[in-house]
Prior knowledge:
alpha/beta, Rossmann fold, seven-stranded parallel β-sheet
Amino acid sequence: MKKYLITGCAGFIGSNFVYYMLRKYEDILLVNLDKLTYAGNLENLKGTEGDSRHVFVQGDICDKALVTELFQKYDFDYVINFAAESHVDRSIANPEIFVETNVLGTVTLLQCAKEAWYNTEARTWKDGTKYLQVSTDEVYGALGTEGYFMETTPLNPHSPYSSSKASADHFVQAFHDTYGMPINITRCSNNYGPYQFPEKLIPLMIHNVKQHKPLPVYGDGMQIRDWLYVEDHCKAIDMVVNGGKIGEVYNVGAHNERPNILIVKTVIEQLRNRLRDDSITEDLIRHVEDRLGHDRRYGIDPTKIKNDLGWYPETPFERGIVLTIDWYLQNEEWMNHVTSGNYQKYYEAMYKGK
Length: 354
């Protein structure tokens, strides 16, 4: 039985990965560690109730005593670190939290894994172990109108969020280069799909359209992102942790580049037709003051992971956006819960007066 420590499992990508792995493997144990911050939601894991292959632990990845205890109890083969503060706007408002979770938390996990897997006298690592860091294409900075991020592209982050992720990546690579730790790093493009917290573009627009609220679009809305359906990302992570070459970085992208304004207009059109509501129009769009340091374009070249592991994105955007909207329409109770209380204060703070 392969035993995984998965951090940030109650968040968007982490919860989707849990479901993906439980569908694919019978003989597996997933121990899931999550602090349950605003974006971590136990409702995301309702489908795991009663499944002995899944153990949930509430806790902080910065808590070394807790992480060490989990290693001793479960003797993990793999660590997959999804846990991260991930919203750029929040990082601009409060960068310290991003350093604590994304940098110090990563170092804590690395050190605990090293203490559990590394024989200091022989300078050897326990067979079959690996640490995988889930990172982002934002660590590369911004692209011009041509070209793509490759694994060899120098890191040039522009926001406190992407800077914290780049720092974490450097620590992961340092543990490999210094100690020989078996690691991989994956850097993905913008994910979308079920369970995504509605501070991110697509679920935010879905929520606001349904409420007939204004749709805040930063600047002219022509910032371009490569959109990756979350299940395709989960498949890539599984393939990298089980077959990726030790020490390598893998970019995970879908060649689904779309400007933000097109994404917003697609959501409007889809929901107008789906809900048969002619009052849902582009008049809901409100262009607001652009985000500080807003990168203009991201685009990923996934050739390496395709050639090394045979991964490819299976979900074109035209199908993925329909699947995503379907899920949110079918899970109104989930959306109502996550957008109550403190969410309203956050929304006001982010967009009021812009």
